[in-house]
Structure formats: structure tokens, C-alpha cells
Amino acid sequence: MKPITPTLLHNRELADIFLRMSQSYSVLGTEHRFRANAYGRASRTLANLAEPVDLHAHSIQELDELPGVGESIAGKILEYLRSGRISKYEKLKKEVPPELLDLLEIEGVGPSTLRLLIAHGIHDRTQLLEALQKGSLDVVPGLSGLKLGHIRQVLKVHKPDEGRMSLALALRTGQSILSAMKDVPELEQLTLAGSLRREKETVGDIDLVGVAREKDRKRIINRFVHIPNCQRILARGTTRASIMLEKPHVQVDLRLVSLDEFGSVLLHFTGSREHNIQLRTLAHKKGWKLNEYGVFNAQGKRLAGATEESIYALFGLPFIPPQQRIGRRELVGAK
């Protein structure tokens, strides 16, 4: 049995797993309502826990004293801390594909929609994208054209040059959104990301990354989806939201994160995809893991993530400007 090293990363990982389990049981039907509610409460407890859950992991009885954590869930926490997995969750993923659960944040999409998708052979994002492009879901009873339209927009199912605008227009639009949100006191930082930050000649949508405490995010997202010029809400969750502007007719995506992961999330959502893959390959060679939450060693300790500069420095690289992140030889040149 491997020793348990205390880290707040375990809080996040378990909170995410229990949230997924809660959502999965909701998709499976109302007869699983009790389980869905129980795992939802446990997820909130772990997300708000100030100290590493590992410090309570001496026994099931000690974990049982945490709000919303009963004996059964306490056992699963211990199982995860000792083995890195939860067997019940692994079985549940075969019934409800985790890739589909993010769809629950889309306006008008609920557990019943996911049940329909699964019943019609959709088990991952690739299958869903193919079905949306072919239009094979348009004739499924219960999947309205409006609902599928929202899913298409949020997943950005369109032709490469469809609905793209000039960099100049995208910059003006992005700056107008930043201005509309600048007087939100709970919003500690807010910056543009995506292809707009890389200054591509044409831009398909606008990405924003902001810093805020978890208790303030619901208020910030509510403000974001009601900014002037918002035509309709496409998706709204606890950490992200998507809206469609009236003029120009463009999608805007917002992601809220904590300060210690701001740099890694900004790096991830700035891209390019090829550049990020090269960085993840470097991390893998060193025995590390790089994702949107930061760079972690084999023991789960965060090595960098608060700023992009700290991530590049960890790899022995100077800061690479967004405009140069094309995924060719910029890492070699930087070295």
C-alpha cells in the first residue's frame, strides 16, 4: 500500500469525481435520485475543504465526520487515496460516458437529453460531433432543433471558415466585453485567450479566462450572461459559461479559475493545440504531468501553474509570446 502524501490536489480530484458520479446517477434516472444528491453534497464538501482531505484519512470514522460524507463515500475516498481510482466510478463510466457530462452545462440540455444520446449510440465526443455534422440526430424524438443548435454552437461544429471575423473586429469586441466586466469587484483578473490572443488573421470565437474565488463565481457568471449585447445564453455552469452576442454574431466563452492555476488555464486555452502537445510531451519525459490545472510531479505536488512564465521557466524555457505558439519548432528555438 503506497503512503498517502497530503495535497489539496486530492480535494479537487475527488470533488470532480463525486460531481461526475452525481451527474451520472441523474442521467440513469429518478430512481437514483438519492445517490445523485449524496455524491453532490460530498463533492461540494471536498471542493470547499480548506485543508487536504488526506489529513482526515486515518479511518472511515474520521472521514465520516465531514459534512456530507457518509460511511460509504468515506470508503471510496480511502480507496482513491490508496489506489488512485474508485472501482464504482470506473463501472459507472461504462454506463454514462464522462465525455458527455459536460453537455449538462448547455442551456436546455438535461439528464434526459443525455439518456437519449446514449440510447442512440453516442458514447463519446467524436461520435457526437460526427452525428451533429451528418444531421443523424435531427430525427430523434425529444431532440429539438433548438437544443441541437445550442449543442452545435457550444461544441463549435461549423466549417473552418464559417462565421469567422477579422482580427481587428475581434479585438474591438473582446475589449468591449472586458470593459463591461471591469467593474465586477469579485473578478480579480480577466484576459483574452484563444486564437484572438495569438492574433490570428481571422477569429471564430472569443475566449476569456478570469480569476475568482469559488464562492464568487456564480455571481460573476450571472453578470457575464447578462452583459449588454448578449443575444442568448448557450451554456452556464459553476466555472464557465458561453453566450452568443447580437452584434457581431459571435460566441464568447468564459472560464473562471483560482489564482494558482490561472497561468496553466490561460496557456491551455490560448493554444495552439500543437504547442500544448509539445509542452505536455516535455512534461512526460520528466515524469511530470501538465494539464490545464498546472504542472504536477509524480506525487501530485504542483510545480507551477500560477503564471505562464513559471511554467516555461520550469522547462528551462523563456516566455514564448502567444503569437509564436504555432507548434512547430518554437520550443527548440527557445532552448
Termini separation (Å)?
40 Å
Q: How is the main sheet built? A: 5 strands, mixed
Find the structural class using helix and strand composition.
Answer: alpha+beta
Give the averaged pLDDT, no decimals: 91
Task: Give the name of the CATH architecture of the largest domain.
Answer: 2-Layer Sandwich
Number of strands: 10
Percent of residues in β-strands: 5-15%
Shape: globular
CATH C-level name of the largest domain = Alpha Beta
Question: Care to give the gist of this entry?
Answer:
The chain has helices at residues 8-28, 33-48, 60-64, 71-83, 87-95, 98-101, 111-119, 125-134, 145-154, 167-181, 194-197, 214-224, 262-270, 273-285, 308-314, 330-334, and strands at residues 165-166, 189-193, 202-203, 206-211, 230-236, 240-245, 251-257, 289-291, 294-296, 302-304. A hairpin with a 5-residue loop joins strand 9 (294-296) and strand 10 (302-304).
Give a verbal description of the structure.
- With 335 residues, this protein is α+β, with helices and mostly antiparallel strands.
- 48% of the residues lie in helices and 13% in strands.
- The chain folds into 4 domains: 88 residues, DNA polymerase beta, N-terminal domain-like (DNA polymerase, domain 1); 52 residues, no CATH class; 93 residues, Beta Polymerase, domain 2, CATH 3.30.460; 71 residues, DNA polymerase, thumb domain (Beta Polymerase, domain 3).
- It is globular.
- The longest helix has 21 residues.
- The protein has a 5-stranded mixed beta sheet, sandwiched between helices.
Main traits of this protein?
335 residues, alpha+beta, DNA polymerase, domain 1, Beta Polymerase, domain 2, 4 domains, 5-stranded mixed sheet, 3-stranded antiparallel sheet, 16 helices, 10 strands, 13% strand, globular
